């Protein structure tokens, strides 16, 4: 029977009057594609990251080269630009987790490289560093760790592997704003590049969009050129010059990956609310943890002491003793007016990846086991405490019949 209560979706963005006013200001300005708002968003994002750097002399030193932020129209675009800039190409291999969305892996295929998928750590759901090291070959060029659901991957171990084997590291941080790892904000670690997502259901949103962050000046320069058709100068620079300057050169066959000012306007205001958003997500996750104690399920892992989880997703895994299987659980939640999802159908189960690389579920036992039992519950800042209690009651009712 369908619930008489309003449907609670899996995710909703929180857009306030400040975002609306910023977008209206952009529309009235006459500059709606990549321009001053996109530049401001990049600068504000860099400033946010810099505000979390550990000063040298206090165990820091990661701030020796300045961070640069490059706004793009999706995290997929950012990952593609980062791999292209570090020279990934035909004959290379890129290692990543099977337990991710296809975008993480497909960007390597754009460049003609092969993807090597590895299993997850069953406790954290993140890529297993031991599996990564076992997968390294003479063809390996890069590792793409994914900070699953907003919990940091074991970057200390992964960066050590990369250092030993001379590999590049590009973090897929689509879930990880503002996640910390070893007391440092993701985006300020020692990887070659970090890419964030601002898709509609992420911790902040621009509708569609992303940010590539790096300390590598050459990588940043290449990404900026390739972001907009391989042009030596972008439109904003050419059209706002103090003297007429219409000339440009195409220096490479680039892409169309720029973020518009309309989208950046949303990002400017969303970034200001990020800390408040994270606190609300943390509160909801804690309410879930408390409500689900003693149920036949596994709640998401907590971060290491002193670190922060972004709580982009709240993923539970039903126990073997749960009274109903995962798919039926999701159906019953829907009947109760509550939207759920599954993150993710592992890549080894999708026809393209399975068939291209001859993959089988038995190669990825931890990801497969988790997938068959996992459910992502709603977690978004617009949820009221009453909404949270309703979801908790529905879960308890289904698992304690």
Describe this entry's structure for a reader.
- By secondary structure, this protein is an alpha/beta fold.
- It folds into two domains: about 15-270, 3-Layer(aba) Sandwich (Aspartate Aminotransferase, domain 2); about 275-400, Aspartate Aminotransferase, domain 1.
- About 35% of the residues lie in helices and about 10% in strands.
- It has 14 helices and twelve strands.
- The protein has helices spanning about 15-30, 35-50, 75-85, 105-110, 130-135, 155-165, 215-225, 235-240, 260-270, 275-290, 325-335, 350-355, 365-370, 385-400, and strands spanning about 70, 95, 115-120, 140-145, 170, 180, 185, 195, 210-215, 295-300, 315-320, 375.
- Strands 1-9-8-5-4-2-3 form a seven-stranded mixed sheet, with helices on both faces. A three-stranded antiparallel sheet has the order 10-11-12, with no helix packed on it. Strands 6-7 form a two-stranded antiparallel sheet.
- CATH fold-type name of the largest domain: Aspartate Aminotransferase, domain 2
Whole-number total of structural domains:
2
Integer-rounded radius of gyration: 22 Å
- Spans of at least 5 consecutive residues whose pLDDT stays below 50 are none
Order of helices and strands: HHEHEHEHEHEEEEEHHHHEEHHHEH
The appropriate CATH architecture of the largest domain is 3-Layer(aba) Sandwich
Instruction: Give the CA-CA distance, first to last residue.
Output: 17 Å
The CATH H-level superfamily of the largest domain is: Type I PLP-dependent aspartate aminotransferase-like (Major domain)
**Share of helix, binned:** 25-40%
Shape: globular
Strand elements, count: 12
Strands side by side in the biggest sheet? 1-9-8-5-4-2-3
Strand % is 5-15%
How is the main sheet built? 7 strands, mixed
CATH class of the largest domain: Alpha Beta
What average pLDDT do the residues reach?
95
Structural class: alpha/beta
Put simply, the count of helices is 14
């Amino acid at each position: 029977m369908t619930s008489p209560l309003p449907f609670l979706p899996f995710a909703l963005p929180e857009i306030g009057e400040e975002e609306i006013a910023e977008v209206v200001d952009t529309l009235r300005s006459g500059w709606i594609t990549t321009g001053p708002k996109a530049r401001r968003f990049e600068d504000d994002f860099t400033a946010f990251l810099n505000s979390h750097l550990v000063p040298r002399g206090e165990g820091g030193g990661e701030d020796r080269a300045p961070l640069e932020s490059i706004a793009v129209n999706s995290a997929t675009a950012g990952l593609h630009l980062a791999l292209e800039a570090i020279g990934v190409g035909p004959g290379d291999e890129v290692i990543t987790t099977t337990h991710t969305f296809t975008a993480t892996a497909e960007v390597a295929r754009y460049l003609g490289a092969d993807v090597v998928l590895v299993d997850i750590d069953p406790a954290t759901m993140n890529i297993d560093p031991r599996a990564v090291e076992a997968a390294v070959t003479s063809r390996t060029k890069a590792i793409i760790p994914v900070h699953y659901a907003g919990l940091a991957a074991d970057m200390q171990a992964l960066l050590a592997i990369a250092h030993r084997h001379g590999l590049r590291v590009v973090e897929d941080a689509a879930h990880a704003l503002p996640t910390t790892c070893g007391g440092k904000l993701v985006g300020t670690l020692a990887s070659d590049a970090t890419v964030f997502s601002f898709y509609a259901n992420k911790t902040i949103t621009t509708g569609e969009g992303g940010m590539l962050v790096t300390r590598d000046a050459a990588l940043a320069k290449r990404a900026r050129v390739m972001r907009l058709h391989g042009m030596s100068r972008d439109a904003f620079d050419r059209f706002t010059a103090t003297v007429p300057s219409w000339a440009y050169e195409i220096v490479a066959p680039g892409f169309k990956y720029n973020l518009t000012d309309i989208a950046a306007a949303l990002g400017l205001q969303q970034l200001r609310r990020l800390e408040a958003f994270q606190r609300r997500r943390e509160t909801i996750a804690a309410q879930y943890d408390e409500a689900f104690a003693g149920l036949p399920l596994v709640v998401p892992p907590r971060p290491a002491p002193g670190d922060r989880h972004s709580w982009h997703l709240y993923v539970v895994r039903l126990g073997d003793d749960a009274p109903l299987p995962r798919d039926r659980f999701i159906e019953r939640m829907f009947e109760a007016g509550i939207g759920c999802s599954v993150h993710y159908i592992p890549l080894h189960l999708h026809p393209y990846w399975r068939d291209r690389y001859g993959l089988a579920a038995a190669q990825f036992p931890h990801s497969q086991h988790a997938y068959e039992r996992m459910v992502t519950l709603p977690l978004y800042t617009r949820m009221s405490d009453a909404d949270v209690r309703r979801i908790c009651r529905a879960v308890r009712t289904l698992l304690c019949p």
